[in-house]
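URGENT: need a sanity check before tomorrow's submission.

F., can you look over the (S)-ureidoglycine aminohydrolase cupin domain-containing protein record below? I want to be sure the sequence and structure line up before it goes out.
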Amino acid sequence: MAAESHSDSSSNLRIIVQRNPSESQLSELGIKSWPKWGCSPGKYQLKFDARETCYLLRGKVKAYEKGSSQVVEFGAGDLVIIPEGLSCTWDVSNAVDKHYKFDSSTSSS
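Structure tokens as predicted:
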């Protein structure tokens, strides 16, 4: 049986958070070879032009997805996947330090 999903395209853009992934999973993804990025506490308006996978080394974030009342919380030790095309506001309560990787699903450049 196939799972069905009935929703408009904007609600398909959802942040996925995996809490405390295993060391073997992080190693398999090659997280430690990814670039690092950090920010201080504050509010940031972000638009993701490519899918981002990131692993938070430290920090705490509440992400408010544009056009949605949904709030997604993540922080140190979480593996987060942010879909391409998502606009959101990050409310950073504790400074963020993360490894990240962008995956462009389209190679039409």
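My own read: The CA atoms of residues 8 and 106 lie 21 Å apart. The radius of gyration is 14 Å. If you see anything odd, call me.
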